[in-house]
């Protein structure tokens, strides 16, 4: 009974955390879209900028992936182990670096002070690497959950 209660508690905490991250990324995505539109309009900017990509990165990589992970956690018994915790920390760090650099670089492009430097590409690349690591760890965790899940053996 205690193990069942602790498993349910861990599952609920994970589900709640994923729900909160989905809501946060939705709000950030909508705010990024509003910021892009407002800034480019106020500056009469008509060129191309990566600022518009922040909106889609927050919505697609943040909001939608959080919802997909939430659905997987609710349907597959994913163990709440170190791998699962590492997925979330790595995922959020990768999102912060990737989308943060898009907003930073895009703002500089619109305002006219942006100068490309290898350092900026390195920071952005690190964000993408962290996202790749998070997705890899998520697949490992999902595989472990499918192996351990009694539903997986009856469905196969």
Summarize the structure.
The protein has one domain (12-151).
Number of strands: 0
Largest sheet: none
Number of helices: 5
Helix content: over 70%
> How many structurally independent domains?
1
Radius of gyration: 19 Å
- Strand composition percent: under 5%
| Unreliable residue runs | none
Q: Give the class from helix and strand content and strand pairing.
A: mainly alpha
Give average pLDDT, whole number: 85
Please give the alpha-carbon distance between the first and last residues: 28 Å
Written as H for each helix and E for each strand, in order along the chain, the element string is HHHHH
Categorize the overall geometry. elongated
Please describe the topology of this protein.
Layout: H1 2-42, H2 51-75, H3 82-111, H4 118-148, H5 150-155
